[in-house]
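Q: Could you fold this chain for me?
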Amino acid sequence: MAGQGLVDIDPYDPRDGSLPVFGWKQAGRENLATRRQLREMGLRPGGQEPVARIECRGGKRWAWLYRIDLAQPKLPMTLAKEAALDKAMAARQTCPVCRRRYVHCLPLKTVGSCLECHDGTPADPTSYTAPPAKHLLAA
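A: Sure. Below is the predicted structure, expressed as structure tokens.
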């Protein structure tokens, strides 16, 4: 066991040669596309399995390829989806100490708060919204 190295196994590749592997710019854009290319076209894979793989940088980077003719239109943004995304972004943009919501994501995993609360670096007043004031009668 000591002489064996780690092997990178792809769970979607059947390893029987049934999934073709293309090099960079060899797949042709007329019938196959990556997820990102489908998204640019206003499409999504729609549950279909990948039909090929494209590799670049000597196989270090790769992406699945999907058939364009089987792709489905992207789902529209609903109010519920927009509210869920706003709630998720609020968690990443709100300082737990001063409760300000910034326009950018905060380093909460490394620093734990905004830079002003962490080390006193002054924040640009246009980069955040102040927390809602506590009502005087609520106390």
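A (continued): The chain has a mean pLDDT of 85.
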